[in-house]
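User: My instructor asked us to take a sequence, write out its structure as tokens, and then describe one feature of it. I'm not sure where to start. Here is the sequence I was given:
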Amino acid sequence: MRMRARPGRGAAGGKRENAPMNWIECCIVLAAAILATVALTPLAKCIAVKADAIDYPDRRRVNTVPIPRMGGIAIFGGMAVGAIVIYGGVKLLGWDNPFYQLFGKSINYVLLGAGITCMFAVGVIDDIVSLRPKVKLAGQVIAACVTSASGLLLTNIQNPFVHDAFIEFGWLAYPITVLYLVAFANVINLIDGLDGLASSISAISAATIFVFSTLAGRYGAALVSLVILGTCLGFLKSNHHPASIFMGDSGALLLGMMLGIVSLLAVARSTLFISLLVPIVAAGVPIIDTAVAIVRRKRAHQPVSAADRGHIHHRLLSAGFSQNATVLIMSAWTLALAVCSIIMAESQGMIRVLVIIVIAVITAFAIGKLHLFEPVLRHHYNPRHVIPRKLRRSQELQAQAGEQVEASVEERLAEELSEKE
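Assistant: Let's start with the prediction itself. The structure tokens for your sequence are:
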């Protein structure tokens, strides 16, 4: 029942860095996360209704009836149960501890859990009271700082020009990790616009990191990926179209944060520079959507946090696709990128180059078909700031004509008054 991975360095007191996978343990963890999330979803609905955390229909939302939006409670609970099962397996069933020592560097898992809980709390508060964007961002940064303080850091990357050498980030590892985690949290949050969309994309991304972690012998990252995958699958039972509950910011920020964390676990001290791109490419669809949204809103002189209907899923809906079809299209795009990312990480030479070209072609084709860059490339400058010469001349002529009309009317009135006198 074990699959032997590539040999690697040992980690004293715990499971070796490149250790064999125990598929029975994996199945137990996955099943526990799925069942716990399914069981906790009705509770999340009740809490959302009592807290009035409801998405009411409006011109921007696609739901036509009020839907509770604190599904993150079920997702958080599913993750907690998954973590408890892993801990219980180590303590009671003799499972190898995959987290005792991570690649020669200890991590404070109490602080790590506190950072995850903090991100979840920010989402819960926002679901209830709708925090101001700056306040919400500050909460996300605090959560990421607590997580970074645990010792889970992107401390280095392999030097692509020198064999078996690493580029150390030093003190910059802290701000880089904070930025990385906050970015991951927000790309999942921004893609959460249709029933089951964020859950599906997060599930595919988690499955991709699981496959990569398994091939690389990162046992701890593989188990955490299964916990994320299990919560997504369990939540999809109630979140697929027509959804009876939305994950809200409490779920989207949490899933994004966890994907960022597990990706750091998966690529830590990797011998492949290209491996850092695996989680990023796997989450390529929401990343592209977020990047285009930022540029689009900046060019339209709108705040980055402003809501609009220019996201990828909005464009697919406008093109006539149903919600289910839109989710399937975006999931298929994500799956194609995920498969390419794994092949890219596990291949060498011309095969890797060809895979990178395939990724670029798939992405360019999708962007072209959806016309994502049309509103970005257009000029959306405010006329008060930039007025074309012809338009300015036209406005001047209209003003002059208006003055002439007013003058002629005044002269006519004066003549009529003088005649009456």
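For the description part of your assignment, you could build on this observation: The chain has two domains: 2-273, 387-421. Try explaining in your own words what that tells you about the chain.
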